[in-house]
Amino acid sequence: MAGIVWFKGMVVALCFIEISPAHPFIRRVVLAFIAIPPLALLATAYYGETLARWAAL
Q1: I need a labelling partner for 48 at 20 to 30 A (CA). Which of 7, 39, 40, 55 fits?
Q2: How buried is residue 23: exposed, middle or buried, by Cβ count under 10 Å (0-12/13-18/19+)?
Q3: Spatial separation of the C-alpha atoms in residues 37 and 43, rounded to whole Å
Q4: How many CB atoms neighbour CB 34 within 10 A?
Q5: For residue 27, what are the domain limits?
Q6: What's the structural domain count of the chain?
Q7: Three-point CA angle 38, 30, 17, nearest 5°
Q8: For the chain, where are the E strands, in sequence order?
Q9: What is the pLDDT of residues 19-50, one digit of tens each?
């Protein structure tokens, strides 16, 4: 699931937002924002109960 989210984010960034001609700094920022949701999905899948306890402080 996380791989699909990452792939769709990359397609949007490359085809619709067209980050290829952008300045390298902007490109890295956009790619970082694309990487965050799949990493959050993986963290929730593996550490869901722990993250829920941390969020319920």
Answers
A1: 7
A2: exposed
A3: 10
A4: 21
A5: 2-55
A6: 1
A7: 105
A8: none
A9: 989 999 999 999 999 999 999 999 999 998 99
Longest CA–CA span in the chain (Å) reads 44
- pLDDT reported for residue 26: 93
Predicted model pTM? 0.73
What's the pLDDT at 1?
A: 83
Alpha-carbon distance of 55 to 18, in angstroms, equals 36
Of 51, 16, 19, nearest to 32 by C-alpha is: 19
29 alpha-carbon distance from chain centroid:
11
Contact 30, 13 (CB under 8 A): yes
Nearest-angstrom CA–CA distance, 26 and 33: 11
Closest CA to 45 of 13, 15, 5: 5
